[in-house]
Sequence to fold (221 residues):
Amino acid sequence: MSVPNPTLFPEVSRQLRRAPHPGGKRADFLGNARQSGPGVPHVNPDPPLRQAHLVFQVQDRAHRIISPPPYADSTFRIPGPARRAAPAAAALAEALLERGYQLVTGGTDTHLLLVDLRDKGLTGKAADAALGRAGIHVNKNTVPNETQSPFVTSGIRIGTPALTTRGMREPEMKIVGDLICEALSNGHSPEKLAAIRERTKAFCSKFPLFAMNMEEISNNK
Fold:
């Protein structure tokens, strides 16, 4: 049976490009190669695409992925790492709040949290740079009633799916929160940031990339 070229169906191609699951943005590769802009391949989404492929491939073998959309059938199961992302984010939010950081909405019910840094005298751009030097990657982000430009911002956005995919859970979020806070408090000290980076590296070495337990995924734990 031949499979039609998805680029011949604009709506299919558009929906694939908007796919929300990890690695979905790599579907931009399905764009018409003769077009400029979207459709030009780039390599940075390849690792999440590989991870997503592993998760859904294993779940498919376990007969957990079904044809109808998730809301149409109660047998659909969200992969364990994705299901753990929101509780991990809540734990990370609690760790940051305990250290005196302000969160927009006071917490989170999702896999993301938005930290308002204005009372710390930091911009999102400066915080992003300091955390990057400490081996921690976040995104600068605007906050309500923003006073900085979108290129500077007053906050940072932190997500937990990359952590839970590596096997981290709520207990590890306390350590992650401590590392974040220490890096933000020492943003002007290259020596201290380098030391925090080594601690971050040592901590993350316990949770290798792509080392998820495939049996765990198939059992949907």
About this structure: The CA atoms of residues 88 and 169 lie 6 Å apart. The longest helix spans residues 46-61. DSSP finds nine helices and four strands in the chain.
